[in-house]
Specification:
Blueprint (H helix, E strand, L loop, with lengths): L2 E9 L6 H10 L18 E2 L5 H8 L9 H17 L8 E6 L5 H11 L16 H12 L5 E4 L5 H14 L5 E8 L3 H9 L20 E2 L1 E9 L9 E10 L12 H14 L8 E3 L6 H15 L6 E2 L2 H4 L6 H15 L31 E8 L3 E8 L3
Length: 394
């Protein structure tokens, strides 16, 4: 049974829809700037979506006085685009929503806490009603009119990859006819301060795989794809999802093993599910956070798997930042278009080879390449690693 990708939707710091995202990647126009929509004492760049929450409500047709987390608003915008693009009828089919997030509604609950900590009789309780990760999923499903299977996955930065993986399995077991899968996350002070406490935020624009890399930049956004069984697709699909796997190296709470064991296993098993060899991969959308440990670990795993024949690869996180639970949702959209249109995306800010890595990513936007299979990686805290393979339709 073949699983087809029939709809795409993305919002990030470089665009409010898929076309704007791709155009920014083509022009090498990143989304990094100082935070505008929340106050912080940290002097670091982030990739915010360039609309306030009030402006997002207007785009969605939601009343301005309605309390709504930014995570939910971003998810609604991207999921609506994907569902519209797919041309499926939510009333005539068994349609599900599998969404992911790591932040949930913290952008609201941390505002409540500011008032509550000074006076326990203060603070609007509705500001914490959407704190739970599942809230954004439920709100998005209601907004889209999806009444079928709905669930939320939160496995840090691999969350959206695992949502896509679960969606594929639901289709293969005939539990759904179509599924909207991906993730959404909004920036907030809690996340920024948390990553700062780990000392992995770069005060400058991040540089994935570069010898001078010093940490990551955070971002926000949402990305969703619609999947159906190929035989059920009413429109021409973008590509197939042929391989997927999740592994855990259980090395450290927030770091990956130096040998890249989890990454190696997830990539290897995804290839096995797809029935492919390493030589069949034409492009790797790497996780590439620009932290010294992560990039070295991922590149070690890539060298173990591909040997001296490493295919072209790049990280897009210098464009959109690390969007946490949304990252593989957005990057799945990019990967599907890479297969469809032969795109290879530039790895911004790469200038010098790290000799411990010994690899150079792609630095220019390319299109029209012959790309049969794209490997897309999403690696999370605790060594929760997910790899997906998107392939051309024969």
């Amino acid at each position: 049974m073949r699983i087809a990708v029939t709809g795409l939707g993305a919002v990030s710091g470089i665009g409010l829809n898929v076309d704007e995202n791709i155009e920014a990647l083509r022009l090498k126009r990143h989304g990094m700037e100082k935070p505008r929509f929340f106050q912080t004492e940290l002097d670091v760049p982030v990739a915010e979506v360039k609309k306030s929450s009030a402006e997002l409500k207007q785009l969605l047709g939601i009343e301005l006085d309605k309390t709504m987390s930014r995570t939910a608003l971003l998810g609604m915008l991207a999921a609506r685009e994907a569902l519209t693009d797919s041309q499926i009828d939510t009333k005539a089919m068994r349609v599900g929503l599998i969404s992911s997030t790591s932040v949930g509604g913290m952008d609201l609950s941390e505002v409540f806490y500011n008032d509550f900590r000074t006076d326990h009789n203060c603070g609007r309780l509705r500001m914490v009603s959407q704190h739970d990760c599942g809230s954004s999923t439920q709100l998005t499903a209601k907004y889209l009119g999806i009444t079928g299977f709905t669930t939320t996955i939160s496995t840090a930065c691999s969350s959206a990859g695992n949502a896509i993986m679960l969606g594929a399995r639901m289709l293969k077991h005939n539990m759904l006819d179509a599924v909207v899968v991906g993730g959404t996350d909004a920036l907030c002070k809690f996340t920024l301060n948390g990553f700062n406490s780990l000392m992995i935020l770069d005060k400058e624009h991040c540089r994935p795989f570069d010898a001078t890399r010093a940490g990551l930049n955070l971002g926000e956004g949402a990305g969703y794809i619609v999947m159906q069984r190929l035989d059920d697709a009413k429109r021409e699909p973008y590509c197939l999802l042929t391989g997927y796997a999740n592994a855990n190296d259980a090395y450290h709470q927030t770091g990956c093993s130096p040998e890249g064991n989890g990454a190696y296993k997830s990539m290897s098993e995804a290839l096995a599910v797809a029935g492919l060899q390493p030589s069949d991969i034409d492009y790797i959308n790497v996780h590439g956070t620009a932290t010294p440990n992560n990039d070295l670990s991922e590149s070690t795993a890539i060298r173990r798997l591909f040997g001296d024949r490493v295919p072209p690869f790049s990280s897009v996180k210098a464009f959109i930042g690390h969007t946490l639970g949304a990252s593989e949702g957005i990057e799945a959209v990019y990967s599907a278009l890479s297969v469809k249109n032969g795109y290879i995306y530039p790895n911004l800010n790469f200038k010098s080879v790290d000799h411990a890595i010994g690899l150079s990513p792609e630095t220019e936007f390319a299109e029209g390449r012959t790309i049969r299979n794209v490997l897309s990686n999403a690696f999370g805290f605790g060594g929760n690693d997910t790899s997906l393979i998107f392939s051309k339709i024969d």
